[in-house]
Model the fold of this input.
Amino acid sequence: MKKSLLAIAATAALSMAVATSAQASDVLIGSCIYKFDDTFMTGVRNNMEQAATTLGAEIELVDSQNRQPMQNDQVDTFITKGVNALIINPVDRSAAGPLADKAKAADLPIIFVNREPDRKILDSWEKAYYVGAKAEESGTIGGQLIAEYFKAHPEADKNGDGKLQYILIKGEQGHQDATLRSEYCVKAMKDAGLDIVEVGSDNANWDKVQGHDKMKNFITSLGIDGIEAVLANNDDMALGAVEALKSEGYNLGTDGKDPSKFIPVVGVDATAPALQAISKGQMLGTSLNDAKNQGTAAVRIAVKAANGEEVTSESIGYTLTDGKYVWIPYVRVTQENYKDFM
Ligand code: BGC
Ligand code: CA
Done:
């Protein structure tokens, strides 16, 4: 009697386990990335693939090549093909509405990542979600890093006027991360009591080469001595600026080089090359934009929703805010802790 009950229990447990994994492996996620040639989104993309493998789901990733009409077509193709969920990194976040409509018409969950649509777009479809990070946090971290450095290093006030002459290199216009990081890094420097002067500001569209070229222009017009700090909205642009500074004999690193020839540069993301630059003393710091947890959260929501299960903080293992949002926190990264992120 006892034995047969146990056997029944074991069989039930086994069939449950089988059912769960069979369900998960039935899930096909279609995912569009605004462009594959983006350092941070490549991290998110790789982590989504890993998360899908872990959950026994399948994910098909396509490159929208920075063209919204192309992305719209890709979504249509995914729907025709019969995917069970969509994870979309919009090219133009203000054009996300029609994508949510397509998902709704096909009764498909749609998870937007990294480029945040309007709340009313998310509200228009109960299975629409957003996974991202609060850009205010990374802006604040960057501003604080510069403020701390300026206070600890009186020589950083190169012209000795008691003010900080800084350059702001911004991401893509219209991207919430560019707007908010720019606003909040300035605010953090002011809140820290610094007297600041913006001597240059320009968009470099998240791109290293453009970051380099914009920085070159600033150096040419202001002179290297007119620049005391650089705040970039992401690491690729910060690294471009570091390259431009290097060709002036600055930021060559602490390794036997002149440490007084350093202009503090901060970015956002904590990409591998940025961590390298921080370790060598060529860049002051950054904040971790957590590609692993953003990718994992998006895939977990997709799989739960595709299986018709309830999406809750408990079921996905990430705090779900207002039934719609997962916010992954940023982490401050400097020479003190960069190794933790390598
Ligand atoms: C990242 C950038 C990236 C952009 C793409 C931002 O959150 O910090 O590095 O280029 O997202 O949308
Ligand atoms: Ca100054």
User: Anything to note?
Assistant: The mean pLDDT is 93. Residues 38, 40-41, 114-115, 175, 177, 206, 234, 268-269, 289 surround beta-D-glucopyranose (ligand 1) (CB under 6 Å). The two ends are 56 Å apart (CA to CA).
